Amino acid sequence: MDEPKTRPGDPRRVFLCAERDRRGVRVASRISVAKPRIATIDTRRVRPPAKIAEAELQTPEHRAWAEEVKRRAGYRCEAIHDGRRCGKAAPAHRMFADHIRERRDGGEPLDPKNGQCLCGSDHSLKTAKARAARFKAWTGAARSRAPYGDSR
């Protein structure tokens, strides 16, 4: 199907709509929808604080450490999934130099052996697990609970 003719700055958006014709064959048709004239605004009473990088992570020494960790990994994610290395790599994906043992847990901040190269999703997952373990140790929680207090 041909794209609808629109001029630059045309306020219409184009969506695909899947439906079936008389013979039951699935077809896609395009629907143009006008954009709203009034922009949306953030109406939350409490907004999350702006993210500010820690000063320690902005030092030339830390930047050199991060570059060494990523270079050593070939700018490829080092996470292992089901016995296979993650396939994400730079420049298509953002890579993070991650501390294997978190700095807050006593890991050496500038030791290349304490570093691994991770993609964004694996870095977020690993960081969340480390925070959960740290919180569990801090609160003395013996076991985790199911959501909404369901202890089945």
TrEMBL record:
Q: Name one GO molecular function term.
A: zinc ion binding
InterPro entries of this UniProt entry?
HNH, HNH_nuc
- The answer on whether this UniProt entry bears the keyword Protein biosynthesis reads no
Return the Pfam families for the record.
Answer: HNH
Q: Does the keyword Ion transport apply?
A: no
Q: Which UniProt keywords apply?
A: Endonuclease, Hydrolase, Nuclease
Superkingdom in the source lineage: Bacteria
Q: Which residues form the HNH domain?
A: 85-128
Please state what the protein is called.
HNH endonuclease
Q: What is the lineage of its organism?
A: Bacteria, Pseudomonadati, Pseudomonadota, Alphaproteobacteria, Hyphomicrobiales
